[in-house]
Specification:
The complex is a heterodimer of chains A (288) and B (339). Chain A is mainly alpha-helical. Helix content of chain A is 74%, strand content 0%. Chain A contains 11 helices and no strands. The longest helix of chain A is centred in the N-terminal third of the chain and has 31 residues. By secondary structure, chain B is mainly alpha-helical. Chain B contains 16 helices and 2 strands. Classes of the chains: A mainly alpha (288), B mainly alpha (339). The interface between A and B is large, with 47 and 45 residues.
C-alpha cells in the first residue's frame, strides 16, 4: 500500500510537469491552431539559461525568474520573426518550420552548453520531504499549482487576459473593437515560452539537463493536452496530472520502465479513437 | 461523341514545337535513368553508398507523398514502417533460408498489413491529431524494438547483423554496385506503379478524399476503405525502402530508427514537394546531402544550420522543389511556344 501511494503521488508530481507543457501547447494551439513541436526545446534552453545564471552566482529564484523572462522574450521573438510569415501557409509547411526550430534550438544548446548530462540544483530544502515524496517532488507540485493559479487569475481578472482570450476566440471581432490581435498572439507565445521554461526547470533536477531532455516530456505533454482536450487549458492541466499518474502506475505495475514511452502512445491513440475531443474539450462543429 | 470530335482536330493541330514540349520530359527522364544506371561504374564507393541511400529514401518518401500529399493524411511516424521493413528483412535472413531478394517484397506485404491496421484508427483523425499520434508512434518505436520479449528476434539493444551477398548470375559487379542497381530497379518499378495508381480511378478517389471528403463520399467513394488502403500502400513503399536500407547498412539496431528518421522523412517530403512524384527524388537528395553540407558550414552547430535551411526553404519554396520547378516551367511557356 505504501509503495502504491508513493507511486501515485510521485506520478502526480511528474504530472505537474506534463500539465505545464500541456498548458503551454494548448495556449499556442488556441490562439493559432498550430502545435508547437519546439515547445520542449524552448523550455530546455531556458533551463540552461537558469543553470548558467546559478553557476554564475545568482540566487536560485532570481535565476528562475530571469530564465522565465528569457523564455517569455524568446517566445515573443520566435512568433514575431519566424512564425508570423507563415500565418497563411498550409499546415505541413508550418509543421516543417516547427521541426526546423526544434533542430536549431537543440543544436544551439548542444553547441553553447555541450551535450554532457549535467546535474541541476533543486531549490527546495531536503527537510520538506516526507515518506512518500521527496522534497523536490513536493516543491514541484506546489510550483505547478501556483503557476496554474496565476494563469487562471491572469486570464480571468485582468483586461489583458480578457483581450487575449477574445483575440484567440474571434480575431476579426476583436480587431474591430481595437484589440491588437497580432500582439496578443505574440503574448500568448511568450506566456507559453515562460510556462515551458517552468516545466523544464522543474524537470531538470529529476531527468538531469541535456539538450534532448525534453523529448519524452514533450510527448507526455501532447498526451496530456489531447487527453484533457486541446481546446481547454484547464483540461490540459488535469490531463497532465492524469497522464503522470497513469505513466507511473503502468511503469511500476504493468509494463515496466522500458516501455513507459509507449504508454503515452497508447493513451494518445485510445483518447483519439474513443473521445477525440478529450475529456474536457468540446467538439467543433463545422458547417459544410 | 461531340467531345471526341472536338478532341481530334486539336491533337492533329499540334505544332511540332508542341510535340517537342511534350516529349521533352520523357526524353529527360530516360536520359536521367541512363545516367543513373552508369553511376555505379564511375562513382567512388563512398559516393555510391550515398546515392544508394538517396534511391532508397526516394522510395520511402514516395510512400509518404502518396499518403500525405495525395491523400491529405499527415504522418510523422513513417520511420516506424521503415524500421518494420528493415527488421523483417534482418529477421528473415537470420532465421530462414529465404533468399535476400525475396525478403524485400515480404517486408512490403507485412508493412502493407501493419499500415492498413494502423490506418483504421487513424481514420478518425485529421490534420494535427494524426500528426500527433504518428509522432507518438515514431517516439515509441525504438523502445518497442528494445522490448525484452521481442529480444530473441530483434536482438534487443544490440541489434542484429544482416548477412551480405554477392551479385547473382556471376555478374562482374561488386556488392555495392549490385545493391545500387537492385535498389534502382525497385525504385523504377515502384515509381511507375505509383504514377499509374495516382492517374487511375483509384488515384482520383484518393485525391478527391483529400480535397473534399464529403463530396467524395457522396460520389460513392468508400472513404474509410480508401484511407486505410492508402495508409497501407504508403507503409508498403516505406517498408520496402526499409528492407533495402537494412541490406545496405548490413546491420539494424533500435537506435538507428529514432524519431529523427521519421522527422527526416516528413521534412524531405515537404521540401521535395509533397503532392508530386518527382518531389520524392528531390527530397531524398535533400535529406541525404544537406546535413553533410550543413556540417561543412559549421561543425559545431550542424543541425542549427540544417534547421535554418528548412525554414528558409519553406519561406522561399512553399510548395517544395517540385512545385517551384513546375512554376518556372509554366513561366517559360511563352518561350517554349516560340522556339
Amino acid at each position: 500500500m505504501e509503495a502504491f501511494l508513493h507511486q501515485l503521488l510521485s506520478g502526480l508530481a511528474n504530472g505537474g510537469i506534463y500539465a505545464s507543457i500541456g498548458l503551454a501547447l494548448v495556449m499556442i494551439y488556441q490562439a493559432t491552431h498550430h502545435i508547437n513541436f519546439a515547445q520542449g526545446e524552448q523550455g530546455m534552453f531556458s533551463a540552461y539559461v537558469a543553470l548558467v545564471l546559478v553557476q554564475a552566482g545568482f540566487p536560485y529564484w532570481a535565476a528562475f525568474l530571469l530564465a522565465l523572462a528569457f523564455g517569455f522574450v524568446t517566445g515573443v521573438a520566435i512568433e514575431r520573426v519566424i512564425i508570423r510569415p507563415f500565418e497563411q501557409a498550409p499546415v505541413l509547411s508550418v509543421v516543417v518550420v516547427f521541426l526546423g526550430l526544434l533542430f536549431i534550438i537543440n543544436s544551439l544548446a548542444g553547441w553553447l552548453f555541450t551535450y554532457n548530462v549535467q546535474a541541476f540544483p533543486s531549490p527546495f530544502p531536503p527537510g520538506l520531504g516526507s515518506r512518500y515524496l521527496s522534497a523536490h517532488e513536493i516543491g514541484m507540485i506546489g510550483v505547478t499549482l501556483g503557476t496554474l493559479l496565476l494563469i487562471y487569475l491572469f486570464f480571468r481578472f485582468t483586461p489583458l487576459g480578457l483581450a487575449m482570450r477574445a483575440a484567440a476566440q474571434n480575431p476579426d471581432a476583436s480587431r474591430l473593437v481595437g484589440i491588437r490581435v497580432g500582439w496578443m498572439l505574440a503574448l500568448g507565445w511568450g506566456l507559453a515560452g515562460a510556462i515551458g521554461a517552468i516545466a523544464a526547470i522543474m524537470a531538470a533536477p529529476i531527468v538531469y539537463i541535456e539538450p534532448n531532455m525534453m523529448a519524452g516530456i514533450l510527448l507526455y505533454g501532447f498526451a496530456a493536452a489531447l487527453l484533457g482536450g486541446i481546446n481547454n487549458p484547464w483540461g490540459a492541466a488535469a490531463g497532465g496530472f492524469i497522464v503522470g499518474v497513469i505513466e507511473n502506475l503502468a511503469g511500476a505495475y504493468v509494463v515496466g520502465t522500458e516501455l513507459k514511452l509507449s504508454v503515452a502512445l497508447v493513451i494518445i491513440i485510445v483518447v483519439l479513437v474513443t473521445r477525440p475531443a478529450g475529456l474536457f474539450g468540446y467538439t467543433i462543429m463545422t458547417r459544410v | 461523341m461531340a467531345l471526341a470530335h472536338d478532341g481530334v482536330p486539336e491533337t492533329l493541330g499540334k505544332t511540332s514545337a508542341g510535340v517537342a514540349a511534350r516529349l521533352l520530359p520523357l526524353v529527360a527522364i530516360v536520359a536521367l535513368l541512363v545516367l543513373a544506371c552508369l553511376v555505379p561504374f564511375v562513382a567512388s564507393s563512398y559516393r555510391l553508398l550515398q546515392l544508394t541511400t538517396v534511391v532508397i529514401y526516394s522510395i520511402a518518401l514516395l510512400g509518404l507523398n502518396i499518403l500525405t500529399g495525395y491523400n491529405g493524411q499527415i504522418s510523422l511516424g513513417h520511420g516506424a514502417f521503415f524500421a518494420i521493413g528493415a527488421y523483417t528483412t534482418a529477421i528473415l535472413l537470420e532465421r530462414t533460408g529465404i533468399p535476400y531478394w525475396a525478403t524485400i517484397p515480404i517486408a512490403g506485404v507485412i508493412c502493407l498489413l501493419v499500415g492498413f491496421l494502423f490506418g483504421l484508427p487513424a481514420l478518425r483523425l485529421e490534420g494535427h491529431y494524426l500528426a500527433l499520434s504518428t509522432f507518438a508512434l515514431a517516439v515509441a518505436t525504438p523502445q518497442l524494438l528494445k522490448f525484452r520479449l521481442l529480444e530473441p528476434w530483434t536482438g534487443g539493444v544490440q541489434g542484429t547483423y544482416v548477412p551480405g551477398f554477392k551479385a547473382p548470375f556471376g555478374l562482374p559487379l561488386a556488392w555495392d554496385q549490385w545493391l545500387y542497381l537492385l535498389s534502382l530497379a525497385f525504385a523504377i518499378v515502384l515509381f511507375v506503379l505509383a504514377r499509374n495508381l495516382l492517374r487511375s480511378n483509384t488515384g482520383t478517389a484518393i485525391i478527391a478524399i483529400r480535397d473534399h471528403p464529403i463530396a467524395a463520399a457522396s460520389m460513392g467513394i468508400n472513404i474509410s476503405l480508401y484511407k486505410s488502403l492508402t495508409f497501407g500502400v504508403s507503409a508498403m513503399y516505406t517498408g520496402i525502402a526499409g528492407a533495402l536500407g537494412a541490406l545496405v547498412a548490413q546491420f539494424v539496431s533500435p537506435d538507428s530508427f529514432s524519431i529523427f528518421v521519421s522527422l527526416g522523412f516528413l521534412v524531405g517530403s515537404v521540401i521535395g514537394g509533397v503532392a508530386s512524384i518527382s518531389g520524392a527524388v528531390f527530397g531524398a537528395f535533400f535529406i541525404e546531402f544537406i546535413p553533410n553540407f550543413a556540417d561543412q558550414i559549421s561543425k559545431a552547430a550542424t543541425w542549427a544550420v540544417y534547421g535554418s535551411f528548412l525554414i528558409a526553404f519553406m519561406y522561399l519554396m512553399p510548395t517544395g522543389v517540385a512545385g517551384f520547378l513546375a512554376r518556372i516551367w509554366k513561366r517559360l511557356r511563352p518561350l517554349r511556344a516560340t522556339c
